[in-house]
Amino acid sequence: MIGIGYDVHCFAKGRKLVLGGVEIPHELGLDGHSDADVLCHALADALLGAMGEPDIGHFFPPGDPACAGISSLRILEKCRDLLREKELRIINVDGTVIAEAPKILPHREAMQKRIGKALGIKPGQVGIKATTNERMGFLGRGEGIAAMAVAQVEDDSDIPF
Ligand SMILES: [Zn+2]
Questions:
Q1: Domain boundaries, position 70
Q2: Where are the alpha helices (DSSP H) in the chain?
Q3: Beta partners for residue 29, in sequence order
């Protein structure tokens, strides 16, 4: 089964920038209730979609005090737990970050490791890519960062015949 995810957060002053579970030095962070890790959120929605579950807001409602400031790696760990309950196994996940700045490539390997650890998969099963919006629209003006993702999972249960 395959799932798709998309997320966007706007930049805000006085916030840390966390992408793929990695804190990236930048003059602006992303606004949000959790750590606003737009890449992890898109990946989580892709995984939830692949297992036929509702979106991330169903499990981590915006405004829930329990979610305030949490690392979005916890959200990926929740996805991993749900997958295990359903006896599903991740084949791979793949995400694209869309931002004019900062550069993502220098942090790619660290993101693969953190996301892989949270999901219980190898770094090589985590695709991370980045592109700009060619200076067009709200992303092009540097108002925020978007991310899209896909995930593929398969049945991991023993078929009884
Ligand atoms: Zn989000």
A1: 2-155
A2: 38-50, 56-59, 73-85, 108-119, 137-140
A3: 12
pLDDT tens, per residue, the chain with 161 residues = 999 999 999 999 999 999 999 999 999 999 999 999 999 999 999 999 999 999 999 999 888 888 888 999 999 999 999 999 999 999 999 999 999 999 999 999 999 999 999 999 999 999 999 999 999 999 999 999 999 999 999 998 876 66
- Amino acid type, 5: G
CA distance 138 to 16: 20
* 104 Cα–ligand 1 center, Å: 18
Q: Report the CATH number that the domain containing residue 12 is assigned in CATH.
A: 3.30.1330.50
Ligand 1 ion: nearby residues, β-carbon < 5 Å: 7, 41
Domain count, the chain: 1
Ligand 1 centroid – CA 79 distance (Å): 15
